[in-house]
Write a structure and sequence with these properties.
The chain is built from six helices and ten strands; from the N terminus they run H-H-H-H-H-E-E-E-E-E-E-E-E-E-H-E. The chain has about 200 residues and is an alpha+beta fold. Strands 1, 2, 3, 4, 5, 6, 7, 8, 9 and 10 form a ten-stranded mixed beta sheet that branches. Helix 2 packs across helix 3 (about 30-35). The radius of gyration is 19 Å and the shape is elongated.
Length: about 200
């Protein structure tokens, strides 16, 4: 399925007319018709990104390069939060400031982010490819699932936090992965920073 077909498909799934989609993007209705008919070969990247945001999919999916895992099933809300790539769930990945797209969020969006999970160490709780919502404002207790950043290279992990008198552990829900233990001194010197408490999992379609 090419980009023209995917634009039309996502527009219909979201329940928008061509005119409504054009209004949301600040374009003419004729532009949307041309996109869906494949009469425009090179759509501006900025337009693709805005369109992906409105149609609740990634620019990669819209451009015909990804599969349905790039579509996030999100409940409608009054606010939107950014989805970042990516937090490792199996091995560390570099956290980035690249926003993939936005999803609806029904609560106060201040301090709330979402990240794509890469790996299977948190299965079955959080399957690979899921989007996890993390609230930076909430206090974190032992047993909570968190997004943690390790050292100055910004290696991000999604793990279950365990607190001990002499340190912490970042634990996988998948028993095939051993826990990561850190002394209280390592927490300070590496350092290890808890970015937010995971409050919601939005599974890929």
């Amino acid at each position: 399925m090419g980009m023209a077909e995917r634009i039309k498909e996502r527009r219909k799934i979201m329940g928008y007319t061509q005119e409504e989609l054009a209004d949301k993007l600040g374009l003419q209705k004729s532009a949307i018709a041309k996109y869906e008919n494949g009469r425009v070969e090179n759509i501006k990247r900025s337009v693709i990104e805005r369109m992906a945001n409105v149609l609740e999919c990634s620019p990669t999916y819209l451009m015909g390069w990804g599969d349905s895992s790039h579509i996030i099933q999100a409940p409608l809300g009054n606010n939107r939060i950014p989805v970042y790539s990516a937090a490792g769930a199996g091995k560390p990945h570099l956290a980035t400031d690249d926003i993939l797209y936005f999803i609806d969020y029904s609560g106060d969006p201040n301090g709330v982010i979402a990240v794509v999970i890469d790996g299977d160490s948190m299965t079955p709780t959080i399957p690979n490819g899921s989007v996890v919502v993390a609230d930076r404002n909430l206090s974190v207790e032992s047993g909570d699932v968190v997004i943690a950043v390790i050292n100055s290279d910004n290696e991000a992990l999604c793990k279950r936090l365990k607190k001990y008198d002499d340190g912490i552990a970042l634990v996988s829900d998948n028993p095939d992965y051993p826990p990561w233990y850190f002394s209280a001194d390592e927490v300070q010197t590496l350092p290890i920073r808890i970015v937010g408490k995971c409050t919601e999992v939005r599974k890929k379609l």
